[in-house]
Write a structure and sequence with these properties.
Layout lengths: L2 H7 L3 H44 L3 H6 L3 E4 L8 E6 L2 E7 L2 H6 L33 E5 L10 E3 L13 E3 L6 E3 L19 E5 L2 E4 L8
Antiparallel strand pairs: 1-9, 2-3, 3-4, 5-6, 6-7, 8-9
Bound molecules: FE2/S2 (inorganic) cluster (FES).
Length: 217
């Protein structure tokens, strides 16, 4: 048999190896790639899952920021105001005198929304003449509805606000004026009344801002 014929009839040991060994190597490579790919996929899934779970768990600070706030109102003398904080916003609590309360309906004609028709600006139980649960206690978010400045309290009649001023709040940014119930005067750039937040009372001296009152509108 010639050298060339021997090569045709019977594969050499080397040729068997050269056919079978790569197949074994391929299997091992394939197994390695499958394992490695699964490991990378699992790592990716973990990396994705951790921030997602984290984002669903509010921090203690975030929970505290949205929590209701209890406020002692026993130290607010008639005619005075106190500022609390709720959800990072200033909330005014004003103890209106009888004279202040009596003044409110007298200037309805000068107001943009005297009857509180824009319902987003106060809870239904505060859609009344003084925008409050107790006629003397006003609870108002102290942020101007124009561009978000904090108005100044100008509680006294007249003074530097002019002789027609019956007491209220003045925003120095662009001149918006609000009365002692937070209702906006016509001609102000602020489009709506100041916001009255949800609130209720635990007892005569304890106001809670952030919890709705259980009462009929
Ligand atoms: S932000 Fe108050 S008047 Fe503009």
């Amino acid at each position: 048999m010639s050298v060339s014929d021997a090569g045709k009839d019977k594969p050499s040991k080397n040729s068997e190896l050269s056919f079978q060994e790569p197949s074994q190597v391929d299997k091992e490579k394939r197994q390695f790639l499958v394992t490695a790919t699964a490991a990378v996929a699992a790592a990716g899934a973990t990396a994705t899952a951790v921030p997602f779970v984290g984002s669903m768990l509010p921090s203690e600070r975030a929970k505290a920021a949205g929590a209701p706030v209890e406020i002692d109102i026993s130290d607010i003398a008639p005619g005075e105001i106190k500022t609390a904080e709720w959800r990072g916003q200033p909330v005014w609590i004003i103890n209106r005198t009888e004279e202040m309360t009596a003044e409110l309906p007298k200037h309805n004609g000068r107001l943009s929304d005297p009857m509180c028709e824009i319902t987003s600006q106060q809870p239904a139980y505060c859609k009344n003449a003084d925008r409050s649960i107790k006629p003397n206690i006003g609870v108002i978010v102290g942020i101007c509805t124009h561009l978000g400045c904090s108005p100044s309290a100008k509680l006294e009649k007249g003074g530097d606000m002019g002789e027609n001023w019956t007491g209220g709040f003045y925003c120095p940014c662009h001149g918006s004026k609000f009365d002692l119930a937070g209702r906006v005067f016509k001609g102000s750039p602020a489009p709506t009344n100041l916001v009255v937040p949800p609130h209720s009372y635990i007892d005569d001296n304890t106001l809670v801002v952030g919890i709705e009152a259980e009462m009929e509108a």
